[in-house]
Write a structure and sequence with these properties.
404 residues, FAD/NAD(P)-binding domain, Alpha-Beta Plaits, 3 domains, eight-stranded mixed beta sheet, 26% strand, binds flavin-adenine dinucleotide
Length: 404
Amino acid sequence: MTDPRVHDVVIVGAGPAGAAVAARLHQHGVRDVVVLDRYDFPRDKPCGGGLTGHIDEALAAVDLRLTVPSVASPAATVRFGSFERTVTMGRPVRVIRRVEFDASLVEQVRAKGVELRTGVVVDELAVAGDHVALKLGGGGQLAAKIVVGADGAASVVRKHLTGNAKALPHRLFMAELPVAATAAPRDDAMIYDFTAMADGLRGYVWLFPVAGDRVNVGLMHYPSSRRGGPELLALLRKHLAPYGVALPAKGSRGWPVWGYHPSAPVSAPRLVTVGDAAGIDGLTGEGIAVAMEQAQVAGDAIARALTSGDVGFAGYRRALRKAVVGRELALDRHLARLLYQHGPGWQRWLSLVLFDPDVLEMYAARVAGTEVLADQKARLWGALVRHGFAARRRRRELTAAAAR
Ligand SMILES: Cc1cc2nc3c(=O)[nH]c(=O)nc-3n(C[C@H](O)[C@H](O)[C@H](O)COP(=O)(O)OP(=O)(O)OC[C@H]3O[C@@H](n4cnc5c(N)ncnc54)[C@H](O)[C@@H]3O)c2cc1C
């Protein structure tokens, strides 16, 4: 299908990022917007489905709503071997199913009158003078003054910006299982289990409650060391076993994603990326609320560009970085590099997270969206100083906890 018009904006990808940018542009009165997606909706997406506490504000800010079933998880249990601590969150994390959530966002955006074309794949793009030309699968073409890369981890727009830059992606695997088939705890607390770090994982195993007596299980691995898919699945299987969860031989789904880097290219003249195309949270692998918060920055920048005619987006990376979401992502990137580093140094940082009286509470408040962690520098420094005195003892406690 070839469309001869040059649209104001084409958004590639109708996931949370694309839907939220479309909704933000609609708020700005930008009407000549086309959203493309390779799949028809509902479509599934491998995900833990955890909507952090700031999702309500993020949705409301772009005039979208949570309309699908969710489990409100009021607390997070953090584990390492025999050690366990539960923190209550100021606002619960809501666990949804992506197949339902994404379809509901697409429906809401459609209901606003935004044009969605599904089953359309963007193969290539080229910036040509006063527009961007998109080559579509099947031989069609489409053009726009501005193109938004909301096309996820395998983004063609991101590839256009970064060229052949080689970096290792985060790896995430997940499966959704019926609770009846397992002996997993069902108190609606989310479980983050770091025990697999002693086996070389640089990340954590999760168990999240899902509506309809099901549990979402998975693992995130930070790329400080290269681990193959079969190795990561074996770790996931091993570390789910103590919960009585048997991972089926088939049915767990993996996905490589790129961590957010404050200096990575996220825009170019006529091009903007958002959501996974711009990078996920390196510490937790969170990206849904992140995508929606970034979408506000992107939508505002695009609306300004259409009005002013300056489509260079020279200030976009800085605007993303300076927004609360960018500051939290940048801090989490630092924390991830410490906690998930290759070699034995992770023990020092994991013992800080687990055994300091304040650190988990601070992070729980950040997840709930009741505090901005990047603004808590004095408290973070306080925890570091305490750790300087307690590090040896805490390291011994960690070693003892590992022998579960
Ligand atoms: C296993 C796993 C667990 C996770 N758990 C959580 C969690 O619990 N909480 C959380 O907040 N985040 C989680 N994340 C991250 C979260 O899934 C992503 O951050 C989120 O989906 C980002 O949304 P997005 O719109 O940027 O990308 P996506 O949701 O990937 O949407 C991109 C869309 O673009 C379309 N597309 C891609 N390429 C093209 C193309 N060339 N042409 C046309 N269309 C295209 C795709 O079909 C897709 O619909 C997890 C990720 C994984 C892999």
